[in-house]
Structure formats: structure tokens, C-alpha cells
Amino acid sequence: MPTIRCDVVDVYIFRRAAPGVEFLQLLRAEEPLKSTWHPIMGHVHEGETAVQTAQREMLEEVGLESSLALGMWALEQTHPFFVARLDCICLSPRFVVEVGPRWTPILNEEHSEWRWVPAADTSAFVWPGQRAAVREVLDHIIAGGAVMPPLVRMS
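Above: the chain's sequence. Below: its structure in C-alpha cell form.
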């Protein structure tokens, strides 16, 4: 029987650049998801909240300190996904972080490459849950170029 886990968080980083909104993707260098493009994904450590995990993972995976983020929001939807190699169904809280147009990631050993993907190119996001997260960001966080009100803003 597959296990169910909710100890993983996702962090979608976006920027407003000259061509428009772009999302950061990272190429996994390690199994079980080696050679696939993702947002930041990380495991919750004992005693951490999901928000604390997201902030720690941002620093560890791409060198982004929370103080450099222009904003951080929680996304409403949690999309279940199955990882066959682990025989595991994952439910992960999702966050979105805005960075300035000149910010550049500094990768750790978990990733071999990074790229900025135009928001209009949802085909760059392989899984339906990732495409749904991008749509939620575009429709509810960025919506018409305005940032969602501080009620849901986390920083």
C-alpha cells in the first residue's frame, strides 16, 4: 500500500522581467526525480512549520534569503501527486515568492541547472499540479499586474 506524506513543501519563485512574468525552474541532479524540472521542493524538518521550511529551502537550494524576497504568499491549492519510485502519495503546501528582475539563483548540489520560464509557456511545467499552481499565481496573486492584498501575504 502506498504511503501518504505531507512533509514536503513547494516554492514557486517568479519575477517581473522585461518580457513579462517568468517562473524559476530547477533541474534535479539527484534521484528520485533526477533530470526533471521543478520549483523548489523540500522536506519539513522536525519542529518546523511549512513556512519555515519554505524559507529554509529557498536559502539552501537557491541562496535566496527571505529578506531579499519582494513578497511571499501561500497558495490555496494542495495538489496530490504520486512518486512511483517511492510508492508514495505526496500532499505539499505551496508558496510563491516574488524576486526582483536581477536576482540570480545560486544552486546547491541538488540541482544542476536553472532557467526562467515565461508564464505563458505552461508546457515547461510537466505535471498538471505545477501548471495549476502557475495559473493560481497568475490569476490570484498577480491578477492584472496588481499584487494580491496583504490578507494572504506572508511577509
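The domain at 3-145 is CATH 3.90.79.10 (Nucleoside Triphosphate Pyrophosphohydrolase).
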